[in-house]
Amino acid sequence: MGAVQEDPPTMGSEVKTEEVHKPNVPSDHKWEIVWGRAVFAVLVHLAGFYGAFLFFTAAKWQTCLFTIFLHVAMAISVTAGAHRLWAHRAYKAKLPLRILLLTFFTMAFQNTLIVWARDHRAHHKYVDTDADPHNSNRGFFFSHIGWLLVRRHPEVRAHKVDLSDLFADPLLKFQNNYYVWMLPFLVVLTPIYIPTLWGEKKMVALFVCLFLRYLLTIHVFFVVNSVAHMFGTRPYDKNIQPGESKLVSFFASGEGFHNYHHAFPWDYRTAELGGYLFNTSRLFIDLMAKIGWAYDLKSVPTDMIERRVKRTGDGSHPVWGWDDPDMSAEDRKLATIINENKES
Ligand SMILES: [Zn+2]
Ligand SMILES: [Zn+2]
Which regions span the lipid bilayer (predicted)? Predict the structure, then answer.
């Protein structure tokens, strides 16, 4: 998950489906560093670290709370919005929710939503091959942040994904066309101006609410591409590299159950197990469904998951059925029981 600054998105008419580079094979492609981006990344990190210093030493408590709020809201906009709603179409959303998610997503400075979804669809379609924009076979650093600092692999450019549904969405087209005009207002001025309402210094707001917040948000999602593609169990599909990581899920709003997600990318929960604490995006989508703003939520039936676990899992799946001693009390509480017999 992440953002990139080159290649305007295309409709992707020539979709190639053949395998490009076998997964699990280290790629020896040379890095062509784009120095402008590398310098920008270094400066943003320095500014973010200074923001962390100010967070603990100079910022007002309202500013600290506001920074956490911005981070959480933008994290939800990336996970529940860009990822689950638009890239995977795992559920549908009414206009107010789409506007809300797209506004926070734009504030998060993760590129246009169509570009983000293009990279993410390519990541799923060609996972851990040279056509995957953040192929984890090119190393931890490359899959974490390095891919944003170098020229894209020719295989990434050659292999298009279908984006026609996103181009057909007027809201996304608007964001795509006017993105550059929205940046100064949404990314820079809003997080600097709002803290002045409670008397915060503009300089503190700049480093804390903008740079520190930005650093926090990008790295929380970069670990999904790096850590969750190198570590963790593979209970659903042992033939792919993404693994299950509860820790990543906790920080990345539910995106760390990555073996499950790559096995069933269209499930709005992006997970089978783990409750709301490890999947705040699912909590958000479920709440939105309650008020009618989210609908047509797709999820995988238990027997289908079980068949997949038995067919391709690595044997580490903890729960085999209801009443399994490994089943957590939280999962038991959250499970849907249809036509429940209250007397038994
Ligand atoms: Zn992945
Ligand atoms: Zn995904």
Answer: 34-56, 63-83, 95-116, 178-198, 204-224
